[in-house]
């Protein structure tokens, strides 16, 4: 497929403009995008805010589209991270929005649960993966998606914010503020989720999954352990 202007690049994919309504998202490695497309289509049918996936035109089936490619709705607006950098949103608003998006996602019925309570998980829901459009926030980048316990998704988002909060720099206070707001929403929105660091706890599972991310690397292990400690320190006290 002919591509237009390169308008975005992530760790694993590039995004090219096709026109004002559609973009082409292409993995740089030989990775199949079909599963990601299926999950976004499923979530859209349940009213969750994801980019619309354009089905191939008649006679141009999925087998004619490279397995690395997705044609997606073009979203107009900044990422939540860009808006936070420009002080268009506050850290508290960022944390609250992420918490609300996690809660909405976990209220969608699972596609094929392996265990009772399993839900669709994003597993990389952070400010770079939320676009602030005129119709509200839209969640992008579903290449990590799996089904599993919602607590792992909450733990993953919390750990990502905690890692940023532990790095010296301009983002430290903003990430810490967003993390605190996220965790304050947890008891109200997901009262059954317990973020603990026991061997089988959701926070431990999230930490172990994040350690498998090649971008984390071996040097990231101490940072992850410190991030776990920060999340535990900022958790609101359990009600008596």
Task: Write a concise synopsis of the structure shown.
The chain is an alpha+beta fold and 240 residues long. It contains seven helices and eight strands, in the order βββαβααββββαααα. The protein is 38% helix and 14% strand.
* Shape summary: globular
SSE order, one letter for each helix or strand: EEEHEHHEEEEHHHH
Alpha-beta classification: alpha+beta
- Count of individual domains: 2
What is the strand tally?
8
- Please give the oligomerization state of what you see: single chain
Which regions have little confidence, pLDDT < 50, spanning 5+ residues?
Answer: 57-63
> Largest sheet, described in full?
4 strands, antiparallel
Instruction: Work out the strand percent.
Output: 5-15%
Which fold name corresponds to the CATH topology of the largest domain?
A: Aminoglycoside 3'-phosphotransferase, Chain: A, domain 2
Through-space gap between termini: 59 Å
CATH class of the largest domain: Alpha Beta
Strand line-up across the major sheet? 1-2-3-4
Fraction of helical residues: 25-40%
